[in-house]
Description:
The complex is a heterodimer.
Chain A: H1 8-21, H2 32-54, H3 66-89, H4 94-122, H5 128-150, H6 153-174, H7 181-210
Helix pairs in contact in A: 2-3, 2-7, 4-5, 5-6, 5-7, 6-7
Chain B: H1 12-22, E1 27-28, H2 29-36, H3 40-52, E2 56-63, E3 66-73, H4 75-94
Antiparallel strand pairs in B: 1-3, 2-3
Amino acid sequence: MEDKKLNTQxxxxxxxxxxxKTKRQMHIGQGNLLLWWGYVxxxxxxxxxxxxxxxxxxxxxxxxxxxxxxxxxxxxxxELRKDKGRIEKEPKTYVDRLTSNLWLTNGCAFAFGxxxxxxxxxxxxxxxxxxxxxxxxxxxxxxxxxxxxxQEKSMKIGGGFTLFAGIFVMCCVFAKVPLAVxxxxxxxVLCFVVTMIIPGHILNAKAKKQC
Amino acid sequence: MxxxxxxxxxSQLRLAIMSILMNxxxxxxxxxxxxxxxxxxxxxxxxxxxxxxxYITVEKKFMGKKPLTTCSVTESGxxxxxxxxxALRGYLEVK
Lengths: 211, 95
């Protein structure tokens, strides 16, 4: 392409062709981050459930929840490192900024909740349930919002389900309905399956088809 | 009376750059070069002209150890592009 003058028709054609070229394309592994967090959360949830069941509900088992932060964090760093090369080859869109800010806010809010829980537990107040409620509500809300932004139905439905599940669990806590391991943990695992694992696989399959 | 087309935008490469940047928030020099298939030298010259006009901003940063030059359109750039497209429409309607 050179610095040549165009006529009106050529100008319009050029604008159209550039807009078409820069239309957001999906990339292979688009759903990897969702899959990583989804699988880690679901497996750790199961691990906590089994541990609580085997130990007769020992609250110390709740420390296992921190595996989500550790393993999920490592996986996220690996994925982001892989993504670095794409930054040069793909334009950054408003959708990219919106979704990354959405999950950043989610992560910060959850980190704040975790720190508060640790603080309260340090003074002998058991507030682990706050983390559980936050996990439902924050991940559900963020997934639902991302689904709306990228127009992915599975994320909208899965996120919405998890958000409502979180509100239900919160109501149970306020109503002093016992949160039995037998139903809370399976609900937690199910929520991460429908919010992250299924949409993650769908996104990857769509990207594979498109690329 | 037909509005005069902005001479700064009425050039193939500069219009292509602006069209790309209008469609995204930020694009790298490498990406724009690939899409426009312009030479690095020519692209730099045209980007500089758009920067001087205040239509785009160019940011040089590092991605790890690798330098990364990114461009984004400014508010006045968006306005100029919209005016240019409106003027183009006027010309096409007359035809």
